[in-house]
Amino acid sequence: MGKNVSKDVLNLVKNKTGKSVTEKDIKSIADGVTPSTTQDEQQLRKLIKQVSAMVNVPVSEETTKEIIQAVKGTGGKMNLGLDSLMKILAKKK
């Protein structure tokens, strides 16, 4: 994972979920993401569940499918930064 996670992203997660998430928490999940993760539906589902569990926010099957379609729609090559992606997902709640 690139540079430091924006404090705005960490605050966004806290405001939306009520749970403080540290940069270390996010990096621990991000470090396990490989290019193949974004191309395999089962791996994407596992990643979504990990993030959901980390912030203690359930993700519906519909939202899971939308996330998977969005990732696959980019050919697995999402050009969004973490900040942008977190803000998009936060709007879903």
Description:
It contains five helices and no strands. Helix 1 (7-17) packs parallel to helix 5 (82-92). The chain has 93 residues and is mainly alpha-helical. The chain has helices at residues 7-17, 23-30, 41-55, 61-72, 82-92.
Q: SSE order, as H and E?
A: HHHHH
**Number of DSSP-assigned strands:** 0
Strand content: under 5%
On the 0 to 100 scale, the average pLDDT is 75
Give the helix proportion (percent range): 55-70%
Put simply, the count of helices is 5
Q: Cα-atom Rg, whole angstroms?
A: 12 Å
Give the termini distance in whole angstroms. 25 Å
Structural class: mainly alpha
Largest sheet: none
Which shape, going by the Cα principal axes?
A: globular
Spans with pLDDT under 50 lasting ≥5 residues?
none
Short summary:
This protein has helices at residues 7-17, 23-30, 41-55, 61-72, 82-92.
Q: SSE layout and pairings?
A:
Blueprint: H1 7-17, H2 23-30, H3 41-55, H4 61-72, H5 82-92
Helix pairs in contact: 1-5
For this entry, give a set of tags:
93 residues; mainly alpha
